[in-house]
Amino acid sequence: MGLITRLDLHPLSLPLTGTFSTAVRTSSVLETVLFRPQDADGRSGWGEAPVSRVTGVSIPEVLARARQDLAPLVIGRSTDELDSLAQRIAAAPVPAAIRMGLDCALHELAAVTAGLSLHSFLAAAYPQIAAANPDDAVLTDMTLSAAEPDALAAAAAAWVHKGFSCLKVKLRADLDAVAGLAAVRGAVGPDVQLRVDANQAYSPDEAVRVLNAMADAGVGLELAEQPVAAGDWTGLAQVERSVDVPVMADESVQNESDLAPLLRHNAAPLVNLKLAKAGGIYPAVRLLAAARQHGLGVLVGCMLESAVGAGAGAALAAAAGLGTRFPGRSGQDLDGGLWPAVPSVAGGVRYDGPMLHLPSAPGLGITGLHPGLAAAGIGTGPA
Description:
By secondary structure, the protein is of the alpha/beta class. Helix content is 38%, strand content 22%. Strands 5-6-7-8-9-10-11 form a seven-stranded parallel β-sheet. It has a three-stranded antiparallel β-sheet with strand order 1-2-3. Strand 9 (247-249), helix 9 (259-265) and strand 10 (270-274) form a beta-alpha-beta unit. The mean pLDDT is 96.
């Protein structure tokens, strides 16, 4: 097997199709860094480190830490050593989003070397989470940015017209969430699944009030994600006890170690697993296996990231068979690749409405940076 000889880093600034607004930030651009390790036989893998206030890293930090702390862990090594290399990356004192970039790229390179699609490779490499027959496509929801009721209703109707049957609505404390969700329900009818994500916007008492008011208004939510501040386990448990809708922990559960307080407080039955929080595929597998062992429902989500990161998440979800039960049967949370106006790479996962089709080609089937980047005047590096 070829030894890894180099690590290329491609910082990208991708315009979005619209403004992305949550309780935490508002953005019209996706800042990200693509990781591309290459081996002596000419094979390469792709990974992504999304950059934002949410992931807590900047492009200069990603570039510096990747070169200084992560590249030495893999240069001169082979993907034959995937398990030990993934453990070394997981243990590196580097922010999780940066570790995600190299970890995912390393797994993709290993899949390419093995001649397997990434989801098939993950099912073989991690039998503790593998489904008997991994799917080749993954269903996703669509996220609606926080907005006034009329704008939410119009956006919801447009996405349902494109085939989406599950919508996740971002909430902000300065907007009338009840009126907004009532408008969405009125626009899409009773058969579309609705989720809400407050991104820590509320106090426990306010979250209970808002969610119960939505129930009284007949909104009919499938789940409510991270209504209170991360780390407020008592508050999260209060919400879980006081509302009828299942509560999902997102910011509260960054990695496997956060399951202990979640379980101790009986704070939520559902977890949104994100590669950028966990630090890549290897630690995400550990989190997924532990969550399942304790009877927690797991949904694979993504940050605001391109189809490279979202594709890795989709491969993990497919390998684990997460689409067969709640909360996955209504869709994962992997719409990130639909937000950039210009794709980051050629090949890779393909969106067809709410379906992410995983390639049968080795890895994620990525053939290189997308030619539309240069046509749009977007710099591609490598840095």
